[in-house]
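Shipment paperwork, digital attachment
Item: protein structure file
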Amino acid sequence: MLQTIKNTDDIKKLTLEQLEKLARDIRRFLIKSIASTGGHLASNLGTVELTVALHYVYNSPEDKIIWDVGHQAYTHKILTGRQDKFSTLRQADGLSGFLKRTESPHDVFETGHSSTSISAALGMATARDLKGEHNHVLAVIGDASLTGGMAFEALNHAGRSFNNLVVILNDNEMSISYNVGGMSKYLTKLRSTKEYATVKQSVSSALYQIPKVGDSIVSTAKRMKEILKLFIMPATIFDEMGFRYLGPVDGHNLEDLIYMLESAKQLHGPILIHVKTIKGKGCSYAQKEPAKYHGVTSYNYKTGEMTTTSSSTTFSASFGDAIVKLATTNKKVVAISAAMIEGTGLVKFSTRFPGRCFDVGIAEQHGVTFAAGMSTQGFHPVVAIYSSFLQRAYDQILHDVGLQNLPVVFAIDRAGLVGEDGPTHQGIFDIAFLAHIPNMQILSPKLPCEVESALAYGLSKGHPVAIRYPKGTTISDLEPVDYMKDIAPRLHLKGRKAIILATGKAVILASKVRTYLMDTYKIEFALAEVPCIAPVDTDALVQLLKRYSQVITIEDHILIGGFGSIITNALQSVGVYKKYTHFGYKTGIIEHGEVDVLLQKHQLTPRQIGEAIKEKLG
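Attachment content:
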């Protein structure tokens, strides 16, 4: 059945039975395809029927479907003519794992972070009305994304706007970690309220059987639905915000989904449809462990066994072990994460110290200010968040932590390129948006074994400290940094005339560049590391560089506002002028693909950097 679908028009020709077969085919296709490429498995398996129903009822791209986050839109891609490209998923120059406007006219808004869809959809609906058009606009948002404050800001605005807008709440009780908080409990209560549905079904069945007038009475009864709901079930929070609430509906029952969506098309004003789905649906191992199979590398599709594993300790694992060790002796250490307990390595901590581990949901802004509040009362909060997600809390870092000089430690995972997840997830901006924060100190370990001393250092200070480290692991023979003993810039290898400066993971790359130049051209450059990026130790830097006229910086970060610019500004501020050459990302848009492939595309492999240095320095 799947092979007959070339575009969304083909779906509308199918019977209900054929649609159900199509859903089964798509699910099998996803399980096998993602097994080869990696990607988001469990979330996409949970939205198959919902996506089929959406494209059956609505006319994309004239009707606008906005997916929150976007990692659950693989079925949407399949139904909009991209099935034959799935072998290139998340690979360089291939299909993106998220929505891309340049990839298809059906991808009407690009997403990657959560809680944005309702705002975007309301903007499109308002623009539609101003232009006098009549297309439909829908936002599909998960229950986890609904914990983000921006979603409530949009709901509040939409509820009093009277725009025709449909919000579909995809309720699977999961984010990346299991859902937490009041909204999760509220939705659980809504899901468990069966009285209304039971009464409705019983009354309708009885009325239909009345000869001649049954259909008419049922039609009248449907208009009495809201009155009946008030008797049986209290008004929902969505009703109170100005939405017409419909549901809950089984998100894997195509007949019910189509009926609900068709009904919504006939209504006016803002509507919220509560759809209950199962993350990992139809795949035993993904359904049993949806968090594990949220984002996956390649795996055996029959067993679910991951085929690409690393025996080396990752930065995330080192952080997880370090915080448990330090918290054992320091009772004031608490950990805070935004729906990323597993991803940030906090599972051991949450098990060992459940009362001191706080998952605030997808609410990075709240998480940072929550940490600030705890620090004023003598606790030592460690906020563990991915680099790209920490961007969402910039104002809170500046206003609530930096300006008050509060001792909050930021454990910034996935700093630098993350590869296959693409531009919305590349952690290449954190130095630029943190270095100017008042009182902020930024540490950048190059090896997983350095994370413990960096964390210990951060916890010992009375001001904000950010520790940025990359995804995965690194290996090097260079001497590890003990942050508790010395954080000054240090020389690893001597050289003549020119010196290469780097920080964090880029130190490993810089070492390879030096080796390439030595092996290929017998040019011996010095190699130095800057463990503390900001504030940089200018005096130590001046002494380190005094014998070199050429300074080369290498970083896993955007050049504007990055490591190289910090070094240049620090030296020039004290009247030291050198000849500088900076290597990093020239643009903030780094598409998806394997990290090594992306470095090649951006001229940042050891050979490419070495050749560029040779050409420039002569």
